[in-house]
Amino acid sequence: MVVVRGAGAGRRNWVRFVPAFWFGSYGKKSLRNSHPNVRAELRPSLARRLNARLNAFRASGRRPKFFDELLIGVLGEEVPHLFSKVDIMDETYAELPRPEFYKVDTVHDSIFTFPQYLEGLLERWHSFYLKGEQTVGGGKNIMRLDFDGRKVVLTIPNSELRKEIAHNLGLLLGKDNFLQNFPGQSEREIAIPLENRRGPVVFWKQPLAEIAKTLANHVIPKGRYIMEKPLNIPLINGRTWEIRHLVHCDRLYRPVITAKYGKIGGDAYFGNMDLGGRPVLAEKPVHDVLQNSQKEREFLVRSEGIALAGAKLLNAHLLSSLTSYINARMTGITPDNFFARRLAVDITGHLGRNGKLFPAVIEIQYPIGFKSYVPELEEVDKQALARVQAMDKALEKQDLPLIQQMLNG
Ligand SMILES: Nc1ncnc2c1ncn2[C@@H]1O[C@H](COP(=O)(O)OP(=O)(O)OP(=O)(O)O)[C@@H](O)[C@H]1O
Ligand SMILES: [Mg+2]
User: Fold this and answer.
1) What pLDDT shows up at residue 94?
2) CB atoms within 10 A of CB 251
3) Last residue within a domain, chosen from 190, 210, 228
4) Which of 102, 144, 244, 362 to mutate to test the pocket of ligand 1 (most atoms within 8 A of CB)?
5) How many domains does the chain have?
6) How far is the CA of 187 from the centre of ligand 1 (A)?
7) What does pTM read for this prediction?
8) Which structural domain range is residue 386 located in?
9) Where a domain ends, among 228, 243, 265?
């Protein structure tokens, strides 16, 4: 397949896709009878790059099982800002019950600069999660910051990120913006005190504003982040928890919950399996917290409704971003095929001031790798795993012609 610059002068945005990546009209036409030879609007430079991606993808011999994997694999790598965690969060989370968050870019300022956000949120919230771009990776790009009035503590579960941060702090040694810091309570923590005082004598001071500035400009890796207020999760034996809902969408975008299981975290801060968490039946953590079968049922039903709503919002985001980026009528592959085949929605319980437990979304996991649920379901719910696999098969079968059309064209 090649994309060629289309019809003449004054129409520089028009390109023609031939033969498999061409465009037809929107709407729910069948694959076979849609009209092949229609031009599409697309920035020529982007069209070129997308084609290069598509060709590289073909040459790689990779054959995805689901059509959305192919879209994400080709388009997603070319326009990664559409599918990063930060974007998925930004686009879908506003309408879901979630903690307050700010989207920040350490390089390009928004309303405030990154140091201002760091300082402001430490002052106001005392704690927040700083979540990076990656969508998959189980705690690889996340840290928590806590401020108790005397020190800022960074808790960094991933050892590589921790090394990078410690290294950056080390590089400041002997420089003006040097931050005095110490190991925290555990090896995952770095503590940065505001001052060193013995009795009335203050040996040195590093005000919060200065700490924030140095962290932002010299220590925290550059990139786009979400700064998120911690939920008030009632702990189970000192451990956090959440319920992972696996959602599949069928051809009519209808989301269904095919499986779910509980995750009991390795500690109070992080619920990831890779960080010492373990899988349990979905009902278990809610039962441990609520001890009231009526309330437990209500919570579980509401959580499922929220997971389904999350899937719908994600699909709306995929549809609008893919169609506006391709910005074209793809013959044979109509935009109604742009939806997530499988995703996961992690939901925990937030204890409100009224003492009531509300379901709240921790994250929407998309794309989702099979490693993020198969071992867990094998352990806690084999029947659900069989359901998931049957659904996968049906969707694979449905997507095969679409994938062939795009890859063999
Ligand atoms: N706002 C929050 N309040 C309380 N706990 C949170 C919050 N955000 C994250 N956590 C905890 O941190 C863990 C990891 O966060 P999250 O799932 O967002 O990132 P991640 O798992 O590292 O990302 P990914 O799975 O995409 O690699 C969660 O499982 C949860 O236990
Ligand atoms: Mg996670």
Assistant:
1) 83
2) 12
3) 228
4) 362
5) 2
6) 20
7) 0.86
8) 1-98+232-409
9) 228
